[in-house]
């Protein structure tokens, strides 16, 4: 591709402030927290009842090494189910032997992900109408930019009790003389109803501090993007679908369901966020400052899960930087390393997935899954994808997201890229840390722990070769 690319990035970051520094919750806040917990439990109980589930297996405990269910970080104990589903074998057992057969096989894989993992997007999702909430010229990193705050109102005429207004902020360098890249971030503050930062705040985090005596701190992602002449944006996922189980009867999922509980194959939050990112592309198609035909997506942690799901499902996106996505993202689901299926089916995470996914943390085993993460990556083909993780260690690092498991999945998707005339990863041997593994499926593990910061420049350099 010779034109400049519009990059949409979904970036989630851990807040840097300690929970201990926050003031104690007020009685009103405590009441709200209890109400949300009760609503989450009611929703999860309803889904378990629909599925005939009475008990769930406990999640892995990542903090207490004496617990029977302590998280495994021993690679020799990880691959308890080593046989992955064959990505290039049709459901009837026939092999895919040529590129022309891939769309049919791809449709089979999408159906399984829809039914068992991420849920189906309804056919009757209402239309989104975008309007500019605020338009201003500013200076960012000494670069003049134009900033537009946008609101995408979802038509709720079918159920006025639920209102969904998607928030999107677009920042474009004033020097741009043609359509430029857009880097859209899942996250950011709610500009319609400001709230304090905390928890998984999302959006561009502050620049990382440099090591003492090591010179200036690394440039922020925004500065790197603007210096390339690209734009960036921030998409607030909570205004699409709340990141909790209590919100499943609200947001876009609740609006379509008219406030009722989900069915087992209804979409979860990850699929809803991907729908919201696709609606942002609708807006970019109306803005001549950006090239909406060339789109990439980036995300970190839970938003890394969202990034790979968005690329897999949205054909208008051209590439992705998937950072520390872990279970439910680019990590092999069958692996017993770090976060496992039972963590994703627990009350704090189940809302990301279809209700049917609960079965694999209860009545079914991981080996019963008809698909796995390598097939999610394969759905992105032939578009390039960059998989990233931090150092694997138990404490203050990135072992929870299982970088080796993500590398394994990226490699197992390789046959599809080869079939379609693209380059799989250049090695099947897990690389030394800080080593770039190139290919149309690329991988890099950095040493800085649970962050996407260190791999931004590597991703941008890698993406350049596709978009110059």
Automatic annotation (TrEMBL):
Residues covered by the 4-O-methyl-glucuronoyl methylesterase-like domain: 263-421
Keyword Zinc-finger: no
Entry keywords, A to Z: Hydrolase, Serine esterase, Signal
Residues in the signal sequence: 1-20
Identification of the protein by name: Acetylxylan esterase
